[in-house]
Amino acid sequence: MLRTGYRYFPRGTVHVAVVDPGVGSSRRAIAFQTTEATFIGPDNGLFALVWEDIVRSADAEVQIVELTEPKFWLPQVSATFHGRDIFAPVAAHIIAGVPLAALGKPIDGLTPTEVATPHSQSKGVLQGQIIHVDRFGNCITNITQEHLHAHSIGERIVVEIIDQQLTGLFRTYADGPTGIPMCLVGSSGHLELSVRNGNAARVLGVDIGDKFRIRGTNSRT
Predict the structure, then answer these.
(1) d(Cα 60, Cα 89) in Å, to the nearest integer?
(2) CB atoms < 10 A from the CB of 101, how many?
(3) Does residue 176 contact residue 167 with C-beta atoms inside 8 Å?
(4) What is the rounded distance in angstroms from the CA atom of residue 46 to the CA atom of residue 19?
(5) Closest alpha carbon to 104 in 93, 117, 116, 120
(6) Residues 34, 204: Cα–Cα separation, whole Å
(7) Which helix (H) or strand (E) holds 216?
(8) Which class is 119-216 in CATH?
(9) What's the rounded Cα separation, in Å, for the pair 71 and 77?
(10) Is 189 helix (H, G, I), strand (E, B) or coil?
(11) Are 118 and 143 in contact (CB under 8 A)?
(12) What is the residue extent of each domain of the chain?
């Protein structure tokens, strides 16, 4: 979700993101900054996909530090609420003009994400995984438009998930039949399993983490 949305914020935005089941443990607290934005939060994979984008863009001005300077935190730090006691105060200091280098020691990179990457099973056949279900029940997968192009999978596709098949790649939700599961590439650039006027996760009986296979109709099964 962070990777999908961050680029639509104004230049200079300071993003504080906290999904932190390891709060208070040995996981690092980090901040990194590019010419476009600053990101602050736990180093537990949360920022890994954003970091991939930054590395891919070869931004020579990127800086990254571990937050090790307590003078920029609240005086009393709870072991279970670093969002309030460390990350938010650090964001305020950055907005007030404190340079990133003052906030801690430089580090080389971030903890990688645990989000699965699609892999090729054979020519023109990919195994993917559902990585998000939105509030409409659309199942967003880890397969992007780029993955489809790279594996020569066009609009004539078959998705096999559990004991069900979805055929064809639709352009919009309105193009699909009402109530019948379909595939399309959504606004995030990721393949979605959707149901027009319905909830795909409920209709298909699937959830985050479920795997599926996608192939072109000319691919071997």
Answers:
(1) 27
(2) 11
(3) no
(4) 7
(5) 93
(6) 41
(7) strand 211-216
(8) mainly beta
(9) 11
(10) coil
(11) yes
(12) 2-106, 119-216
Q: DSSP for 17-53, please give it.
A: ----TTTTSSPPEEEEE-SSEEEEEESSSTTHHHHHH
Please give the structure tokens belonging to residue 104: 């801690």
Residues 56 and 90 sit within 8 Å (Cβ to Cβ): no
| Percentage helix, strand, coil for the chain under 3-state DSSP, each rounded to 5 | 25, 35, 45
Alpha helices in the chain (DSSP H): 2-5, 48-57, 82, 88-95, 145-150, 200-204
Distance CA(140)–CA(129), nearest Å, equals: 9
Question: What tokens does 52 get?
Answer: 């991939």
What does each C-alpha distance from 126 to 45, 190, 211 come to in angstroms? 24, 14, 11
Q: Is 122 helix (H, G, I), strand (E, B) or coil?
A: strand
**What residue ranges of the chain have pLDDT lower than 50?**
219-221
Q: What is the number of residues in the chain?
A: 221
Multiple choice CATH, 2-106, 3.30.1330.60, 1.20.1250.20, 3.40.50.300, 3.40.50.10790: 3.40.50.10790
Q: How far is CA 176 from the centre of its chain?
A: 26
